[in-house]
Design goal:
Layout (H helix, E strand, L loop, with lengths): L1 H21 L2 E2 L7 E7 L5 E5 L2 H8 L11 H12 L3 E8 L3 H16 L3 E2 L3 E6 L3 E7 L5 E2 L2 H15 L3 E6 L3 E7 L3 E2 L10
Helix pairs in contact: 4-5
Length: 195
């Protein structure tokens, strides 16, 4: 039985390793404010795609299926989130644009509470003029969270790093990351933060 469980988890570790190897990402300076997904390719390059939030929610959860889990993996991910103590790291910047950050957290809450999901093996981020709030999904399956998970992440960083400090919290299969644009995101599984 343990062997079956280990083989079942192998694709998750493979996806995590692949994203960790190429997952360090810096949001390009000329990227307009909005919601984006970073797609990684086998040749090591990445492409940035703007996400239509309303269309993403409709596709992920049509009205007749809202409130139901789309995959067993999403349920499993939420179960692990509650059981795993996240690791936390600081990037040592102080966010003075609190109104922009409040907008970012509100946008993520609305997205998750609306039924939005995140495909694994990608970096998802929302940015304003100066700030970035990202979710780095290291698993190969779809991640489904709730708006309260965004609040829990912020509370954890505020508690451990100080209010309005930048950094990340890794929940094993994914990482929340908050920082200024122009700095790397999702580098915590690739040798740590490099300023």
């Amino acid at each position: 039985m343990h062997l079956k469980l280990l083989f079942g988890l192998l694709p998750l570790f493979t996806a995590a390793t692949a994203l960790a190897e190429r997952g360090v990402y810096v949001v390009p300076e000329d990227t307009a404010p909005g919601f984006y997904v970073v797609n990684f390719h086998d040749d090591g390059n990445s492409t940035l795609e703007r996400v239509d939030v309303d269309a993403a929610i409709r596709t992920a959860h049509p009205p007749e299926k809202r409130g139901l889990l789309s995959t067993g993996s999403a349920k499993f991910s939420r179960h692990l989130t509650k059981r795993v103590d996240p690791s936390v790291g600081a990037t040592r910047h102080y966010m003075t644009q609190q109104d922009q950050y409040n907008y970012l957290t509100g946008a993520w809450r609305d997205y998750f509470n609306g039924g939005g999901t995140l495909a694994g093996g990608h970096i998802w981020f929302i940015r304003t003029d100066q700030l970035v709030l990202a979710v780095c999904v290291y698993q190969s399956n779809t991640l489904s969270l709730q708006g309260g998970d965004v609040d829990a992440f912020n509370g954890l960083l505020d508690q451990q790093l100080g209010f309005w400090q930048t950094g990340w919290a890794n929940y094993y299969y994914y990482t929340f990351w908050r920082d200024y644009r122009g700095y790397q995101i999702c580098g915590n599984l690739n040798g740590g933060y490099v300023p």
